[in-house]
C-alpha cells in the first residue's frame, strides 16, 4: 500500500513527521496556522484508491497582535484604545483602570468589547489601564499608562523673533508657544488687536491655522511691534517682536 497526505489550499506544515509507512502523520508543537483540511490518500495496486479527509482546528489562548501603548495627551482630546488579539475560541474582554473594572459611563467612558473610548480626557482619567483577554485556554493582560499634559502657555523656548524685511516682499512671523491644552492664538500690532481669526485673511494679513502670521506686499506702514498672545484655561503668555521695513531702492549718490 502507498499513503500520501495533503492539506487543502496549503502545503503540509514544516513541523510534521510520519510513522508506520506514512499511515500516521504527526504535527509537532501544533500552532493556530496548522489548522486546515487534511486528506490521507491510500492506493493499493494501480487502480484501487481511497481517501479520508479530516478537519483539524487548533485552539490556543489569546495573544496580543499589538499591545497597548502609553499615551501622553492634551486635556480634552478623545482617545480610543483597541485590544487586538488572536485566539481560538474567540476571546472575551474586560477593561480595568487602576485594577478596578471599567464600565460604560455615558459621555465619558465607552466600553464596547475590545475597544475603550474616552470622549474627552481630563486629569481624572490619568492612571494605569489594562485590557484582559480570556478564552477557555488562558488569560493575558496588556497595560498602558495615560498621562494628561496640562501646563500654561510659555514662549521661553520659542519667542517671536524681530526681523528686517524689504518693501514689496512677504514675511512670516512664527508664533510657536508651548502649552497644554494647546493654546488659542491672537495677534496685536502696536498694542491694538488685528481683528483676525485663525485661518482667516484680509488680503494683507493671513492668520495661519498653526498660529503663524503672514504679511504680504510689505510697505513702511507694516513696520512696528507685533505681539502674539497664547491662552489656555491655565493661563496666558505673550511674545513681541519688531518688524523693520527697508526701501527696495538704494539711494543714488
What does this structure look like?
This is Ig-like domain-containing protein. Residues 1-57, 62-147, 153-244 form the Ig-like domain. Keywords: Disulfide bond, Immunoglobulin domain, Repeat, Signal. There is one protein chain. The protein is 0% helix and 55% strand. By secondary structure, the chain is mostly beta strands. It has 3 domains: 2-58, no CATH class; 61-149, Immunoglobulin-like (Sandwich), CATH 2.60.40.10; 152-246, Immunoglobulin-like (Sandwich), CATH 2.60.40.10. The strands form 8 sheets. A 5-stranded mixed beta sheet has the order 7-15-14-10-11, with no helix packed on it. A hairpin with a 5-residue loop joins β22 and β23.
Summarize, please:
The protein is an all-beta fold.
Secondary structure elements and pairings:
Layout: E1 2-7, E2 16-19, E3 24-27, E4 36-44, E5 48-56, E6 60-66, E7 71-74, E8 79-82, E9 84-88, E10 92-97, E11 100-101, E12 109-112, E13 115-118, E14 127-135, E15 138-149, E16 151-154, E17 163-166, E18 171-173, E19 178-180, E20 184-189, E21 192-193, E22 205-207, E23 213-215, E24 224-232, E25 235-246
Parallel strand pairs: 7-15, 17-25
Antiparallel strand pairs: 1-4, 2-3, 4-5, 6-9, 8-13, 10-11, 10-14, 12-13, 14-15, 16-19, 18-23, 20-21, 20-24, 22-23, 24-25
What is the CATH domain class of the largest domain? Answer: Mainly Beta
Approximately what portion of the residues adopt beta-strand conformation?
over 45%
Question: How does the overall form come out from the CA principal axes?
Answer: elongated
**How far is it from the N-terminal to the C-terminal residue, by CA?**
112 Å
Tell me the number of helical segments per DSSP (H or I, 4 or more residues long).
0
Main beta-sheet annotation? 5 strands, mixed
Sheet/helix structural class? mainly beta
Strand order of the largest sheet: 7-15-14-10-11
Which value, in Å, is the CA radius of gyration? 33 Å
What is the subunit arrangement here? single chain
- Proper CATH architecture of the largest domain: Sandwich
What proportion of the residues is helical, as a percent range?
A: under 10%
As residue ranges, the low-confidence spans are: none
Q: Say which CATH homologous superfamily of the largest domain is assigned.
A: Immunoglobulins
**What is the number of domains?**
3
Order of helices and strands: EEEEEEEEEEEEEEEEEEEEEEEEE
Mean pLDDT: 94
CATH fold label of the largest domain: Immunoglobulin-like
* Number of beta-strand segments: 25
Amino acid at each position: 500500500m502507498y499513503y500520501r497526505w495533503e492539506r487543502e489550499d496549503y502545503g503540509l506544515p514544516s513541523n510534521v513527521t510520519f510513522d508506520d509507512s506514512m499511515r500516521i502523520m504527526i504535527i509537532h508543537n501544533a500552532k493556530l496556522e496548522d489548522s486546515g483540511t487534511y486528506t490521507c490518500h491510500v492506493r493499493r495496486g494501480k487502480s484501487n484508491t481511497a481517501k479520508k479527509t479530516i478537519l483539524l482546528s487548533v485552539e490556543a489562548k489569546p495573544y496580543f497582535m499589538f499591545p497597548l501603548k502609553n499615551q501622553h495627551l492634551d486635556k480634552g482630546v478623545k482617545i480610543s484604545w483597541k485590544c487586538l488579539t488572536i485566539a481560538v475560541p474567540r476571546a472575551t474582554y474586560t477593561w480595568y483602570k487602576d485594577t478596578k473594572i471599567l464600565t460604560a459611563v455615558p459621555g465619558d467612558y465607552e466600553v464596547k468589547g475590545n475597544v475603550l473610548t474616552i470622549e474627552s480626557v481630563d486629569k481624572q482619567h490619568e492612571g494605569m489601564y489594562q485590557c484582559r483577554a480570556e478564552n477557555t485556554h488562558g488569560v493575558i493582560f496588556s497595560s498602558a499608562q495615560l498621562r494628561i499634559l496640562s501646563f500654561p502657555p510659555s514662549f521661553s523656548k520659542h519667542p517671536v523673533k524681530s526681523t528686517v524685511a524689504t518693501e514689496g516682499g512677504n514675511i512670516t512671523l512664527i508664533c510657536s508657544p508651548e502649552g497644554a491644552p494647546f493654546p488659542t492664538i491672537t495677534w496685536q500690532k502696536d498694542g491694538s488687536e488685528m481683528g483676525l481669526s485663525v485661518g482667516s485673511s484680509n488680503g494683507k494679513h493671513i492668520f495661519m491655522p498653526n498660529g503663524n502670521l503672514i504679511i504680504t506686499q510689505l510697505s513702511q506702514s507694516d513696520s512696528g511691534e507685533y505681539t502674539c498672545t497664547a491662552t489656555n484655561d491655565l493661563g496666558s503668555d505673550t511674545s513681541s517682536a519688531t518688524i523693520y521695513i527697508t526701501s527696495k531702492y538704494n539711494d543714488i549718490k
